[in-house]
Amino acid sequence: MDIGRPPLRLDTLCDDVLTRIAYHVSTSTVAGPPTDLLSLLLTSKSIHNKISIPGNWKLLADTFRAKFDGEAVQGRFAERWSTDRCLGKELVKRCYMLKRIRRGHPELDGLQQVSEDLWTALLMMLECDEYNRVQLVQWAGIYQYLWQVILWSFATRSFDWFSNSEIPSLVVWLFWMTMDRDDLMREDPQHRLEMQKLLQPFIVASYKYPAFHATDYHQLLPLCPHEMPPPSPPADSTSYQTAPNRPHVRTITHYSHPLTIACPPLTAGALLCSAARSEVNRAIETAAGTGGWRALHPPGEPGQFGMTRAARDAAGQDGATFEDIDDYERGINVRCPGRSTSNDWDELWYRLVGCWDPWDNGGALRGMVYAFGQAAGAWRGMEFVPSQARYLGLLVHEARDPRVPMHRLVREDTVVRKPLYVTLKEHHCLAHEDALDYGDDEWGNDLLNAWLPRGTVLRENEDHLEIYDPVYDRTIRYETLAPGSSSAYLAKSAKQTSTRMEEEDESEYESDPAGAVGEDGEASYIDSEEWEDTVTHSASNVCDIILTGKTERVHGIAWGHFTYVGRVRPWDGLVCLLRRPADPSQARLGNAVFRGYIQGDNFVGHWRDVNTPLGLVGYECGFVMTRDES
């Protein structure tokens, strides 16, 4: 030991070693901002200058990678979105956001800042693989913050929960994306009840709120601006909503680049949140003996509910037995996202960034919005059915006095939930074949016939579907895709990629600390007219998708036999199905058209009657289904 050597001082270390120490200090814990780094920077002025946070993009980027999920940004964007400078600026932006959410006082930030923070949180969940959820749920406590935003809305009227679709949509979807079934089981019963009341108007009066990324009238999108002129450009192109039933569109800063994105459909999030809470509430009440059909049906009372399926079938009767009701009440009819990864949100992501303008094809961020075979298989769930008399009363009241808010007219008992079962098959028209013509006109406007020409005849075979096309008086063949199969013609399924027009010298950014981050943490754009993101798609060999389905016998006897036929809209992956009674003598069951999106293991959307013209509000409500794995 050299006693004469002076002790080694921290500020005498070389910059690289000191930066490495700073990295380990800033990432000593995953959850929360790198607050321990501040203590190191305050050690001395020389250490602060050597680490040089304003321009040390490598340190900030490495810290970002250790605390946030970064795989999604590399797969969804061009390389220039994930430079060290972009990741460093994103780290600072998110740290400010997490601190505001953890503080839990949205009234101190103002509506604009709250909106930006909610967008940042939503994008984090869309990119979440592991760490983002830890930051938002465990460290920041976003669940409590979302309730604070709702309470702030009603206490100060800073925004109207039932008319401002942007913030309610972000709040509802963040509730959905950050919860799992265990979270709902632990949810305060009063909060669960209040949430159902807040969601009820979005479900009952769904025609007033955003449900789809574009009007469901058309099967063929994008629209031609010469034949169907778009609305006048909005006064503020960075934040607008062209119609009450269209999602709000906003241009935000994401990884230091401008990103135009649409809100996820409000009614879909409301249906998922409401259905999940209904299931959890029923499970809790059934376990306690205060809910479920057994609690409502007195023991020993005669009736079909006391029969088994075998006894009912032997008696030649139809209708639900206690076995059918138990199967529905004890089964899983909606799946919470729980620990979903960014791959599970890919289709939703590409719809949000590529399907916000029905007159545009999505640009460089256009990606896969529907995975082949997604719809095929058995589904189970519930349809929300409002009382016809009360629903008509709502429409009449609104027509007479539109000034009365809809939420004041909606009652809790307006909607009942009915079991819904269907098994679907998916049929593909290959690229070298002629596809079935569109219904009604060249834009496929016949929504009430599931975008199919009137007079279409379908005949299912073991491995294909034969279709008679009444428009051209011909027979067409569609290949049937079995669930879980990987047919040879799908080997080149579509894949989104982004490339740069030129090579970029990242060292130019690394050596230029100017404009790093403002005092408020707001990131600036890193963009140039010389750069352009592009997208390359590989052919899928599929030019059209038709779906057929039915209610299996075991469920049809209990809840009604139905057949289904429909189509998938390639622009945004919207599924449209026409449901009809399998037995013509049961016409009383009525026809309905179902439209919705498949998100993960759930299929969520809206049904409506087919007797009301499209120009008028029809009898309609929502539905939620999940894959039947029984």
TrEMBL record:
Biased composition annotated in UniProt, kind: Acidic residues: 502-511
Span list, region Disordered: 492-520
Domain of life: Eukaryota
Protein name: F-box domain-containing protein
Organism of provenance: Heliocybe sulcata
